[in-house]
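WARN no homologs supplied; continuing
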Amino acid sequence: MGDMGVKDLKRVIYSEFADIAKSVGYSEVHGRIIAALFASHKEMTLQQLAKETGHSPSSISVSLDLLEALGMVSKYKKANDRRLYVRLDGDLLDGLRKAIILKTRANITNTLDRFKAYEENLEKLGSKECEEVKTILDTLRKEMKRLDKYLEKIEKVEIPE
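OK structure emitted
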């Protein structure tokens, strides 16, 4: 690794954590934000997060919106202070679970919508080969419903301490 300063080493560590976060659906920026907030053990300003993660304040700001929607962070301002503060609020695993479920359900919904459009197109064609494609659509639709039931079970899994 060579000689690295503390700042460089922290960024490498945040990057390592971000790789794990990416594997479950977060972006690299989300992973770095979460790592920096965990490491600080306290609230941070938007500017501090940008400095710690190596990303621009605008990139951090956009990424915070999703993390806030997932209940991972809270953004707020203090009286007589124009800066935006961020604190880690949620549990990492619960946030990851929510992100996985949200992303997967959105993909299922989008795919089912496209399947419906394909089916409507097949109705217009009305040939023997269309029946084969309809069977394929039905089979895959059933698998996506199974996946959705699985997601329901994941929602109920207790998060370890």
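The chain has a mean pLDDT of 88.
OK
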